[in-house]
Design a protein that fits this description.
globular, binds SN-glycerol-3-phosphate, nine-stranded mixed β-sheet, 9 strands, alpha/beta, binds magnesium ion, TIM Barrel
């Protein structure tokens, strides 16, 4: 295997999932602050579009698990989303934490020199629009002098949307199951991706060689065990997304 054709990769190896994993309410600004306090310098988040076209952070399609809201998040305006308490479900210390906008998180990262991985997590049917909006926002506010945010998605249409509005921002295709005939690698190449982010169990030496050989970086989610991280490092992969900001050293 040769990695000499791989493009530069300016990101740290370690990425904190949803801010600080499970130590703080996921995708809240408090979570990203806590991750930073643990020494982490790159953060993954999940971004969706509100009904009035503002990008905000939420993982699930529904509100119950991570807020005091009920039902589907799709269809709510930012004003309605801003009424929600996204912290009390986790613990009393975080009561009243709101669902942040993607712009608020981006500005927090920019102000502190942190790197950002925005997972485009669209409501069904809004794949391309959400990707376009993420690209438009980050192309507008992220200075060319700062390391570019990495845009990722399980949805090809979302990455195509991001490419349409921000072709200069690096993209990564997320994959949970490896499809026959390396179809996901071909999709990633067609989308001009710089990386693939796989469910970590999908990586083996042959697949790392295949993806590196195609000129793409190899990242993994969500890696919470030391044995799994060691396996991925031994395989020569390039990045690890983890909840365990309290277990791993992000400088390693
Ligand atoms: O972006 C990596 C990872 O977050 C993808 O899965 O479900 O945790 O958003 P999920
Ligand atoms: Mg995610």
């Amino acid at each position: 295997m040769s990695t000499t054709t791989l493009p530069p990769w300016p990101y740290p190896r370690w990425i904190a999932h949803r801010g600080a994993g499970k130590l703080a309410p996921e995708n809240t600004l408090a979570a990203f602050r806590l991750g930073a306090q643990h020494g982490w310098r790159m953060f993954e988040c999940d971004a969706k579009l509100s009904a009035d076209g503002v990008l905000f952070l939420l993982h699930d399609a529904t509100l119950e698990r991570t807020s005091n809201g009920q039902g589907a998040a799709a269809g709510l305006t930012l004003g309605q989303l801003a009424q929600l308490d996204a912290g009390s479900w986790h613990s009393r210390a975080y009561a009243g934490e709101g669902l942040p906008t993607l712009e608020a998180l981006a500005r927090f990262c920019l102000a502190n020199g942190y790197q950002l991985n925005v997972e485009i997590k669209p409501h069904p049917g809004q794949e391309e629009a959400t990707g376009r909006a993420v690209g438009e926002l980050l192309a507008r506010i992220w200075p060319a002098s700062a390391t570019a945010p990495l845009l990722s998605s399980f949805k090809s249409a979302a990455l195509a949307g991001a490419r349409a509005t921000a072709p200069q921002l690096p993209r990564a295709l997320l994959v949970d199951q490896w499809a026959p005939a390396d179809a996901d690698l071909h999709s990633a190449q067609q989308l001009g991706c710089q990386a693939m982010v796989l469910n970590h169990a999908l990586w083996d030496a042959a697949r790392v060689a295949l993806v590196h050989g195609a000129g793409l970086r190899c990242l993994s989610y969500t890696v919470n065990d030391e044995w799994a991280a060691k396996r991925l490092l031994d395989l020569g992969t390039d990045g690890i997304i983890t909840d365990r900001v309290d277990l791993f050293s992000p400088a390693a």
